[in-house]
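Objective 1.3, modelling of assemblies. Example input:
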Amino acid sequence: MHQTAQKRLFSAIQPSGAITIGNYIGAIQNWAALQQQNDCIFAIADLHAITVQQVPEILRKNSRDLVALLLACGVDCKNSILFLQSQLSYHIELMWLLSSMCYIGELSRMTQFKDKSAKKEENCNAGLMTYPVLMAADILLYQTEIVPVGADQKQHLELARNLALRFNNRYSQTFTLPEPYITSNGQAKIFSLQEPTKKMSKSDVNSLSYITLLDKKEEIIKKCKRAVTDSDNQIYFDCQNKAGISNLLTIYSAFTGKSIAEAEMQFKGVGYANFKETVGEAVAKYLAPIQERYRELVADKRYIDTVLRDGRERAGDIAYKTLRKVYKKIGFYRGE
Ligand code: TYM
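Predicted structure (tokens):
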């Protein structure tokens, strides 16, 4: 039985191929830590992934493999719920209901929509714009109190809160207002290793710009060594003037548990080449047991399917209760 002090927590991640250390540091690492004290629900946001055209076999494989990876990262599917978003149609139903209360102006102002639509002239689909409404549905279906995400999702969470408030004001108290959980240090946004003022992203065309959780040790070290930095050869944290070095310090701190100040002390007087190599070694050392556990889990398809079946059932029970209430409040006729 969960204690009443526990809070309901929801978060999700897209199964769009490589999962980066940005995803890990900004979100997944917090999921694993927060699930000890909270009532957690984690989803693989496969519906969100199709705003970019997907190859069916690859989408299926990526979704299944991501279950194994999240478990390897410490998501505990006994206490927490882990499920696939597309397996519960409640998400799409609530999305439609919320869409009718969401203004086009709100969606077109979203930074991520503006960035993505500017880049995707050939596939600027409506899903890119309505994506945050689906995200709001994900969160609100579960009466979520806390949403641990990276800084890039903050604006989407504000929309989820606004939609919840709007619905509650119009129809009476129905949805819990979710609070973002975004770490306040630099870990909420890990930057590209090649352009350290840009977010590290798995969709970057240059694979040197990101480290994935499944990269081999040599690759990780190579990517760290090739990371773009300044030329003053001093190692200290200063996001404004030393974005590359600061990003590497943040990564080092996340994977060693040392504070930024401790890391600065450790690297005082050390050359950039040595520093980068040490960062790469620390990342590889941290990821090695996750990779080993991943390889065991991913081979066990039956187990993955069991986890997803169980997750779907448990998540479905909660989501259905909310949705039933929402239908009733809006005024849909249900018969006697
Ligand atoms: P996605 O799949 O892009 O990213 C998953 C999580 O990783 C975080 N993240 C980062 N954090 C720090 N530095 C980075 N470079 C970095 N890159 C990614 C993201 O902030 C996110 O927390 N729309 C969401 C998935 C989603 C969701 C939800 C999240 C769907 N429904 C409901 C929370 C609640 C997304 O595309 O995340």
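Residues 142 and 318 are 6 Å apart (CA to CA).
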